[in-house]
Amino acid sequence: MGKQIYEEIAIFSGKAGKPLARRVCEEYSEISGDAIQLSKVRNDCFADGECRSQPMESMHGQDVYIINSTCQPDRNFIDTAFLANSAQGASAGRVTVVLSYFGYGRADHKDERWKPKGAKIMAELVSQDADRVIVLDLHNDSVENLFLAKAVDVLYSSKFAIPYLIDNIVNRSMREVIFASTDAGGGKRARAYAKRAGVGCVIFDKERSEPNMIEEDSVVIAGNVEGKDIVFIDDMIDSGGTIFDDAIAAKEAGAKDIYVYATHAVFSRKVLRRIDEGSIRRVIVTDSIHRTPRQLQTRKNKIVVISCARLLAEAIFLNHDEESLSESDLFLNGKPLEPLEP
Length: 342
Description:
Blueprint: E1 9-13, H1 18-32, E2 41-45, E3 51-55, E4 63-69, H2 75-89, E5 94-101, H3 118-127, E6 132-136, E7 151-155, H4 158-170, E8 177-181, H5 187-197, E9 200-205, E10 208-210, E11 213-214, E12 220-222, E13 229-237, H6 241-252, E14 258-265, H7 271-277, E15 282-286, H8 293-296, E16 303-306, H9 309-320
Parallel strand pairs: 1-4, 4-5, 5-6, 6-7, 8-9, 8-13, 13-14, 14-15, 15-16
Antiparallel strand pairs: 2-3, 9-12, 10-11
């Protein structure tokens, strides 16, 4: 059976994904040589809070991409599901949901009685009307199997993050740089980053009593950090409790400058103040979750945002042309990666 080629492509977005979706359209236009604009969507709510997410342009017969971040609030899941359902109802040629951030990735298994499997519920919600799902940096690999779409492609921000970390930290430091995992569960990710960057890797571990809380004085470092600069690698920063406790432990063990790279800037509670006042020199995140300049503002300008738009645009371009994402390295075509302007 031959490949199904769709001549027309349309990119839509939920409310949370609009800033990133506009950047993706710009990058896609540059890659393809054909200008594409973000299609119009009506996003509003009734007085009782019931939400509506309705496409305002035709989807009939088109290769439709719906870009969104399913961060809080949970209405972003609803926005995504509504748009995918609208596309199917409008006889779109194909529907691909592009999730720059998938929330509830930490709820992928039942470790307590009567605990719901939130990842499964939410994955099914956003993918039940999708032919394909493209998602960036899942918290747990097992979540990939929970989507209902016929095909799921997981992208990794390491494609652009590792070159950034090498150019801006590893090659500029006057000391030895090592990468680190914030806990044992993230060791595989940190070791992969370290191997590609050509540096060493250490693992931090601790006992966790409940979500966002760790036992006092429980951080153990599997490796030597004395006199070295450390780059912590993680998929997200939520309340920041784990990372800040690890940073304190690293400093006490003789580490010098502390950096953090995390794909998703969840940023709950008082994390920005903790970044501002803590010992971490710089936090690098992506725009997978939109944060305004005011939300990212710290007195010491410690936060740097790099964009995942090029990676998503490359994936959409290849998928639209029926090329395999798994067989592609999704190169950035030599385009320099610069921090986003505030």
